[in-house]
Amino acid sequence: MARTHRGLALLALLPVGFLVVFFAWPVAAIVGLGFGDGGVAEVLTRASTWQLAGFTVGQAAASTVLSVLAGLPIAFVLARVKLPGIALVRTIVLVPFVLPTVVVGLAFRALWPDGGVLAIVLANAFFNVAVVARTVGGLWSHLDRRAEEAARALGASSWQAFRSVTLPRLTPAVFSASAVVFLFCSTSFGVVLILGGGRFRTLETEIYLRTVNLLDLSGAAALSLVQLLAVVAALVIGAVARRRRESALRLRSAAEAVRRPEGREWWVVAAAVVVLGLLLTPIVALLMKSSIAGFEGLATTGGALPVSGWDAALRSLRTATDATVLAMCVGVLASVVLVSLRRSPGRLARGAGETMDAALMLPLGVSAVTVGFGYLVTLDDLPGDLRTSPLLVPFAQALVIIPMVVRMILPVLRSVDERLRQAAATLGAGPARVWREIDFPLAARSLVAAAGFGYVIALGEFGATSFLARPGEPTLPVAIAALISRPGELNSQMAYAACVLLMLVTAAVVTVIDRLKPSTGEF
């Protein structure tokens, strides 16, 4: 037992060490600088601070409600309906979730040139419908239908059976998805930056403004603390809901095969079709705004960009590759450790696992600008001064990817029958061989899917990259932001053309991922 604990401790060194060095240390340094200025208390007592917090929570809550309402009909179709084109539906739903935030912002600006609160809420909901559809649909597809059919046999209508039987059993998945969506919406950066302009700001964009433009570290630190409190609350709710969801999955009966909808269920299918049409509308608007002149402009240098758009695209591909490799190494190791800790008989080990699981999600909720600025403050103390390293941007992007990797791989590893591992160990296989012979084959599809998701997320990451990328070495999202900040029709056309490039790459990768059909996972 002691040898097993030592092995787990060694395995945990890499993910925990990475989180400490590249997340906790930079964030603590920025917060410490802010407290050192002595202005945190003063910022926290301003009415404007809490107005910002109120707007951040309000738009995130509205976006979450809209995402749930739009996602439930899609979840029903994905889980219960046997109709032609379901694979295409899954891809259409998934594409918005992995689109870069600057692409989503520009797509909605094509529909609402003046932006505003409604545009922000709709854009965030568009971005997160897939989280609800896939998380709730994953549980819905495993629910035993016999209880629902018994209610119908006793005279309940379709709506009554859903409300009294199905919906209570779906509640853990709905709460889990809602917590994740709220987390994403409350820390949304590119969407709010593009659609909010100078009129509407959230905590995330205000932290960026105070750090980059005003160098107000105490103000940025105070706002980061307020944001962190909201994030921790969302993580706690999500963790509780996740445990309830996993319990429901363990206790389920074998699911019945999907079938064609009957009676009033066609209304749900019709609602899903309407949602799909609305999801396609911003994408179509983005395509219509692009032009041949814009693509031709990307091949030139000078003007608003120090390099050509194609050079920026290649740099995005290389950076995303580095970030994905790093995130997969850390995320897979973290998942293995978390599974082992959860199987441990001791309360202390299980508690350590839950703490580590929550800590791995924190980078999703802390301002990317805070992390990026923290890198510039702290990483010069490490050998080689990583502030000048080309790996600085991949490190920041990997922080965003690691939680996604863990959330996709961890449920799969937890679902592996423990008797298979025990049988292999009884036959003399060591832990490494058990992983190679048992866990890896069963989790292979999810591993590839997680890598694909991580790649497209890194490809479009904007928050930290906009702060850390060198002026002469922009990634494509940073180049898009530079183009839309400059006047001129050609700059606008080039920005939309670059968005179309990112969208096409994203759609291609998502299509491949969806064909893999990973069995479990939250995304």
Features:
single chain, 523 residues, MetI-like fold, 79% helix, transmembrane helix
> Could you give the count of β-strands?
0
Globular, elongated, flat, extended or rod-shaped: what is the shape? globular
Question: How far is it from the N-terminal to the C-terminal residue, by CA?
Answer: 35 Å
Strand/helix succession: HHHHHHHHHHHHHHHHHHHHHH
- CATH class descriptor name of the domain at 47-286: Mainly Alpha
Query: Which range best describes the helical content: under 10%, 10-25%, 25-40%, 40-55%, 55-70% or over 70%?
Result: over 70%
Kindly describe this structure.
The chain has 523 residues and is mainly α. The chain has a domain at 47-286: MetI-like (MetI-like fold), CATH 1.10.3720. Helix content is 79%, strand content 0%. The chain has 22 helices and no strands. It has helices spanning 2-36, 40-44, 47-80, 86-98, 101-111, 117-140, 146-153, 158-186, 190-196, 203-213, 217-251, 265-289, 292-298, 309-343, 347-361, 368-378, 392-415, 418-426, 431-460, 463-468, 476-484, 489-516. Helix 4 (86-98) crosses helix 22, helix 6 (117-140) packs antiparallel against helix 9 and helix 10 runs antiparallel to helix 11.
Outline the secondary-structure elements.
Elements: H1 2-36, H2 40-44, H3 47-80, H4 86-98, H5 101-111, H6 117-140, H7 146-153, H8 158-186, H9 190-196, H10 203-213, H11 217-251, H12 265-289, H13 292-298, H14 309-343, H15 347-361, H16 368-378, H17 392-415, H18 418-426, H19 431-460, H20 463-468, H21 476-484, H22 489-516
GO biological process, one term: transmembrane transport
Membrane topology: Multi-pass membrane protein
Keywords: Cell inner membrane, Cell membrane, Membrane, Transmembrane, Transmembrane helix, Transport
